[in-house]
Amino acid sequence: MKKKQPKTLRSLKFSQELRKNISTILQHQIKDPRISKTVLISDVIVSNDLIYTKIFFTIFEYKNQEKIKITLKGLKNSSKYIRYLLGKSMHLRILPELKFFYDYSLTNGINISNILSNLLRYEKDKK
Q1: Quick one: DSSP state of residue 49?
Q2: Domain boundaries in the chain?
Q3: Phi-psi category of 43—alpha, beta or left, where left has phi over 0 and alpha has psi -120 to 50?
Q4: Per-residue b or e along 93-103, where b marks 16 or more CB atoms closer than 10 Å to that residue's CB
Q5: Which residues contact 26 (CB under 8 A, 6 or more apart)?
Q6: What Gene Ontology terms describe what this protein does at the molecular function level (predicted)?
Q7: Bridge partners, 99 (sequence order)
Q8: Would you give per-residue pLDDT tens digits along the chain (127 residues)?
Q9: Are 110 and 62 in contact (CB under 8 A)?
Q10: 100 and 79 in contact (C-beta within 8 Å)?
């Protein structure tokens, strides 16, 4: 899924605050065993009207596709409760709808780094 950055300063600040609060909620208040303890909120993108939110996460078990699917399912099932806790902690009148997506940028970055390392090793061995 392609990320699209918020256009306004207001939505940018709001997304940063959401990211911080969602991270805290996941670490301290969500007890769902499906949600990995190594979940990291990598990005939060809020629509300009602050109604819709895309939350991108990654986990350290990035090679385990089954663990990613289970974590995503747990996050989707917990989204209403997370939204409720956000309302309590941020004192908002209107809360955005939360949609979770796995962020493949960490995985892609590691793969590119491995390819470059292998290429460098190949060039050294060639000489």
Answers
A1: T
A2: 9-126
A3: beta
A4: eebbebebbbb
A5: 35, 39, 41, 82
A6: ribosomal small subunit binding
A7: 54
A8: 556 665 688 888 888 999 999 999 999 999 889 998 889 999 999 988 889 999 999 988 777 889 899 999 999 999 999 999 999 988 888 889 999 999 988 888 888 988 998 888 888 887 6
A9: yes
A10: yes
- Select the CATH number that applies to the domain covering 9-126 from these four: 3.40.718.10, 3.40.50.2020, 3.30.300.20, 3.40.50.1390: 3.30.300.20
**What residues contact 63, with CB distance under 8 A and at least 6 apart?**
none
**How far is the C-alpha of 38 from the C-alpha of 26, rounded, in Å?**
10
Exposure b/e, 4-25, CB count within 10 A at least 16 = b:
eebeeeebeebbebbbebbeeb
Eight-class DSSP state of 35:
S
Cβ atoms of 33 and 77 closer than 8 Å: no
